[in-house]
Here is the input.
Amino acid sequence: MADGALLRGTGIGKRYGGVTALDGVDVEVRAGEVLGLIGPNGAGKTTLMDVVSGAQDLDAGTLTLAGRPLAGAPWRRARLGLARTFQHPQLASELTVAENVLTGRLAARHSSVRGMAASMLRGLLSTATGRDECARLAADMGLDDPGRLAGELTLGEKRVLEVVRALAQDPQVMLLDEPFAGADATGIAAIMEAIRTVRRRGHGVVLIDHSVDLVASLAERVVLLDSGRVVFEGTPEECLASSEMRAVYFGGGYDRT
Amino acid sequence: MTDLQIWVSVLEMGCFYGLIALGYLLVLQGAGFFNFALGPYATVAGMTTAWLVAEHEVPLWPAAFLGLAAVVALSVLTELVVVRRVQSRSSGSELPALVAIAAVLFMIEQSAGLAFGHQPLAGQSLLRTAPLEFGGVVVQPYAVLLIGVTVLVFAATALWIRYGRSGRLLRAVGDGEATARLLGLPVARVRLLAFAVSGVVAGVAGLLFAPKAGLQFDSGLGWTLNGFLALVVGGTRTVWGPLAGGLLLGAVQMFVPYYLGSEFVSYVVLGVALVFFAFRPEGIFVWRVRT
Amino acid sequence: MTVDRTRPAGALRRPPTAEAEAETEAGARAGAGRPAVGLPRAADRWPPLLGAAGLALVAAWAGGSAYHQDLAVLFAVYALIGLGMYVPFVMAGSLSMAYGAYAGIGAYAVLVAQVKLDAPFWLGWPAGCAVAVAVAVLLGLATARLSGFFLAAVTLLFGTAFQRWLVASEDLTGGASGMAAGAGPAVLGWHPGRGVLMAAGLLLVWAVAWLVDRLRRGAWGVTVRAAREVPLAVESCGVRTRALDLLALATGAAIASMGGALFATFQAGVTPETFTLDIVFLAVFMPLIGGLGTSWGAVVGALVVVETTVNLPVLDDSGKLVLTAVVLAVLLVAPNGLLGYLDRTRRRFAPGAVRGGRDGARG
Here is the structure.
């Protein structure tokens, strides 16, 4: 699709007991677009990502992906074309780099009982597991030793590995939660290249990060969240120049026009 | 159902399971852990006392005291040597702790079998008075002691948790261990206290119940499971929850054989477990993240 | 960690579809200078060969002595129960204590077929597996979202209830005295001798251990092991983790029931006391003793268990106690470490993946 929303959320609301984490949030990602999601701590960025990916249920609003309703368990949404990384890297530390990528790449096989049974049979009959292809994917992003255990990687390498795993799913929309935090220069370069590649393929990316500069350099559009509400939406330049941005990050009120 | 004598038995069993379940509750609050070794603790207390009295002619009350002391030592050792270490090393996953406590359970059972033999031992009643009789119902002296002590223990625990300094600490740690640590509360001591007190409770339960059930080196496993179930059924909201759960289980144990047949007890217990575990998970299943 | 700057910007290739994977592997093989991917690597060959050698030794030791043959079969039965435990426990991280019951189901199925249904003994094998799988799935569904303690407790209660049921159902199971088949197993009129049955049992252990090891290293096994550590992340990739766990439970139950069927076939008899809860605890300890990084660890553990609890006169009755103490010591010294340590050691000898940087092909 050249235009039209790939991922759309309307009126999303989420409460935890008495606390409103998200309130009336509208969000839209178009094909071939990177959407930046910025805001201070506690603004609800990760909560929004959790609600979109299915890690949490939403209390109000609707979600669609490529026109189809986005609902159900996380695995269902992943099958529809969603992939994500986590604020704290969620990797199997006792498995190797290649094996962690494998979980993502071959996830499609393991989304049904029949597929799993077939996968088990395959494992019994042949020793070829596709680790080599996964090793190549990892090496493309700079992780040279695919036999290393994920638990032994540095934080930056773990972030890169999470992105590789997400990429390996060939998703329609990739959700990245602070992928640059703790990464070194080469890791950042690799992840930025990955984001550009996804965009080139005509897919979408939602990018959360505290580094406003990085987000601004990658994103076509930026959404500013504060206390669970969308406070500003526009191009990075517009957002950085806006009064809302100043207010949210430097205190004071802002125009709600 | 109208036979009051059976209800006396229900009370006896209910109090026993309730006490074990109380032990579970205390360790759950203090250390976020299900101490599956509680059943064998009860067995050891009862068997040590019975063996000392029967084989070595130790007077009753000193033997009982020694039995309790042995169990408290076991309980404290469990925390110091096993649980604390395994829990701190395996952040997030509870499997190592579960396997470790299963090993402890098995070890205590086997040790009891070696020390006391595989033959059943008769429990020693701590009260040697005449049985109470009223309305056609006979209440044995051990039962009077068991029921009376149970009520006392529960009441004392309820007061202690609410008003006692260390009791309130226990509750604070139970609400969130990481936070408690940050606040500078003596978490390690609270854990030890929880294990020690639960050891006393389980030991008392074993001692008082022994005259009814008799003692065998491997009765611990069944007691562990039933006590755990009593906790889940009764809930952890209030200190009296375990007693309620214990009484329900006691009723099942006494009435099911009467109406359905003796083997049906284990089926019904399994059924109760499945139902409660599957449909009443709230309150207990919130597994606190250990940092 | 370096980014290969000699590659053009579009270096990130779209991952091939699953169907194309085979072609890629073949292409890799054909490519110059690449290690052959499809052939068994050294590490794949050693454990099964060593295992075969070990089992052949056991068979030779058993020789013609009936008592030794009994022990060898007991070892095989324990090994199968331990292997049954391996998939859900070690791989999926879910501790079910129903393995005595699954073995019992397998054993009674064989005898019920022979004695009650006048059917050939080998029908009992798949029937037992089917029943054990059904039970495991039901138990798994009922305890799906619960922590390990609850699964352990429920499965222990199930084991107790199953034993009571065996004693109570005299018509079907022969009650407390169990069942005995008049004659040994027969296949089309041929009555295999005890030596043959023992050898077949040991062969079965070898085959199952080898298959479980392959399962572990295949894509499904890797996914199961990943789901054990980071279930949410794996599910967010598109994996149905609940079905994954149930499949692991079912596999374990089927294997354990084969252990029971082996016992019943060899001994031509079973009682409710045959598969006690003690065996379940010992089965938990087997992979811990023998090593968690490979399914052969469960086999080694079974050997150690049978040696110490049944065979060594010096330990006599205290064999189980000594064993448990050793297991506890191991758990305390390195509970997670043992798993990782063994796996890491194995990995150093097992080039299971392309090592780009190390071999100097890249920067």
